[in-house]
Specification:
The protein is an alpha+beta fold. It has a single domain, classed as Nuclear Transport Factor 2, Chain: A. 40% of the residues lie in helices and 29% in strands. A six-stranded mixed sheet has the order 2-1-6-5-4-3, sandwiched between helices. The chain is globular.
Length: 153
């Protein structure tokens, strides 16, 4: 089951990067709760169900049309996964760049859909602690890219 969760997580991110909302929603349980980092930081409520995810999707890509997720690692945690990567894009109106480390957890169910919670919480201790990740392993995006040639050796 766990490898299925890793594959599901990669499929979700791939659909996000392709801007395929239909595929993205087909991978989400109808009762999914989506709490993007920005919402969590502001203490906001999660986006609920497919309608909530659709609303988040439309609002997000209207402001950041080229937003992309680059995945460095997907870690199997049994009934959920931990994702480490980078989110980057550029504001549609301002042209201002955004780039930040992504570290989040999602839960999957045997039916092959993301269910209950999909949380993207930056580099918080709950995310990394649940995955057994040392915060030093979660390098900022630019540093990670700069070090990649050396890390591949």
């Amino acid at each position: 089951m766990s490898q299925q969760n890793v594959a599901l997580t990669r499929q979700v991110i791939d659909a996000f990067n392709r801007r395929d909302l239909g595929a993205y929603l087909s991978l989400m349980d109808p009762g999914v709760e989506l709490t993007p980092y920005e919402v969590w930081v502001q203490g906001g409520d999660p986006y609920l169900g497919h309608a909530g995810v659709r609303s988040w999707w439309e609002d997000t890509f209207a402001v950041l049309p080229d937003l992309e997720a680059e995945v460095y690692e997907v870690r199997d945690l049994g009934d959920r996964t931990f994702v480490h990567g980078c989110i980057s894009g550029q504001g549609a109106a301002s042209g201002a760049p955004i780039e930040r480390t992504m570290a989040g957890r999602g839960m999957a169910q045997p039916g092959g859909r993301v269910v209950v919670r999909l949380r993207e919480r930056g580099r918080g201790p709950r995310s990394r602690g649940a995955a057994g990740v040392d915060h030093r392993a979660l390098l900022p995006c630019a540093k990670k890219r700069a070090l990649e040639p050396a890390l591949r050796r």
